[in-house]
Design a protein that fits this description.
alpha/beta, Rossmann fold, eight-stranded mixed sheet, 8 strands, about 35% helix, globular
Length: about 240
């Protein structure tokens, strides 16, 4: 795998008005290698090649960095191999990030990456709909973020209960984003939130959509429902 040097990566970030320190570059570069090595064992990333990992994973994660104030608590739902949570933690170590995924092997990889990169990040294996009903996690976070984890209505029901009132859901979607299919507009108000207009943007020619919703009142305790019901009867 050809390695991108610091100058190339810093230039890539600067095109989007983002800065990249040498320390962050070194940690991201090591993480890129870990993702590539692990993908030979399990599907932690469908992206192969160092430049693609930098563009499609790291730059995409960095694009939302300025939405999080220093010290904010962030839960990354359906994190997989740690995207966007691990890049965010590298780029802003003050963030209090929790990685959540239901697949133990992926969380075990995240734990190895966290240790190798010396990050202050928590990784949890569990089902979002179960943890969101627990007092230890419900309404505890400033932000919930997820990248292409589930359709909008399902993601909203799984994520909004984690947010405290005043918190924000940030959903990262790809070029095929369709608001009629995603159904954020119908789900968010039922969960105590207000939906913002989707932000359309492009990363190195690839179209993206960013959907944000603020939580303005507590989520009804009947949400989230059991996963089978969420899937069978979306909001």
């Amino acid at each position: 795998m050809a390695e991108m040097d610091f100058t190339a990566c810093a230039s890539l970030f600067s095109r989007y008005h983002l800065s990249l320190s040498m320390e962050c570059y070194e940690k991201l570069n090591r993480y890129a290698q870990m993702l590539t090595d692990e993908s030979r064992v399990q599907n932690v990333t469908a992206v192969h090649g160092n430049s693609d990992i930098w563009c499609r994973h790291f730059l995409d994660s960095a694009y939302i960095l300025n939405r999080f104030p220093d010290g904010a608590s962030v839960i990354d739902i359906g994190t997989g191999g740690g995207i966007p949570g691990i890049p965010l933690a590298i780029l802003n170590p003050t963030l209090q990030i929790t990685l959540l995924d239901s697949e133990l092997r992926k969380i075990e990889f995240c734990e190895r990456a966290i240790a190798a990169l010396e990050l202050s990040v928590r990784a949890i294996c569990g089902r979002a709909e179960e943890l969101a009903a627990s007092a230890a996690y419900r309404e505890q976070y400033d932000f919930a973020v997820s990248r292409a984890m589930a359709a909008g209505s399902m993601l909203s029901e799984l994520a909004m209960p984690f947010l405290r009132v005043g918190g924000t859901l940030i959903a990262m979607k790809g070029r095929n984003y369709d608001p009629n299919f995603e159904r954020f507009e119908s789900a968010i108000p039922l969960l105590g939130g207000v939906l913002h207009e989707a932000e359309q943007y492009s990363i190195e020619g690839e179209q993206k959509a960013l959907i944000a919703a603020d939580k303005i009142e507590p989520t009804d305790l009947k949400y989230p429902r059991r996963f089978a019901k969420i899937k069978r009867n979306p909001l």
